[in-house]
Amino acid sequence: MRSRTVPQPAWNLEYAMWMFTRLSGLAIPLFGLIGITAALIMGARTQMDLGTLVRWTFFPNVSHVMNSNIPDYMSWGGSFWQIMELMIAFFGLTHGFNGLRVVLEDYTNPGFWQVFWRGIIFLLWLFSFLAAIYVVISS
Fold first, then answer.
1. What is the tens place of the pLDDT at every residue in 60-96?
2. N or C terminus: fewer CB in 10 A for the chain?
């Protein structure tokens, strides 16, 4: 009697995106917690209303605090916040577009249409991420 060989899992797109989805699902709330904690430390508890604080938490753009009671809002536009904003955008966009890819691949047959939809989703992701980079750099 021969023993059965167990196939070793390979690193392919499916496994990498499955792992990324799990990690980004943990990273997005972590970035939100970091954003809200840092904003409260910087004085948001007395100078911002709740709506501005929530907008700031998930999209820390300096224009979100310009209309609040903060006297000096330039400290809210530093490179730390730009990096946080780009990381939130990257993880959020990639997480969402990967979910869209999984749903579309559930309803299409392997072959041309899966490759077509993967290409369309990648182009949409690329356009969205480039738009996010433009918003971060120009603000």
1. 777 766 666 666 667 777 788 888 889 999 999 999 9
2. N
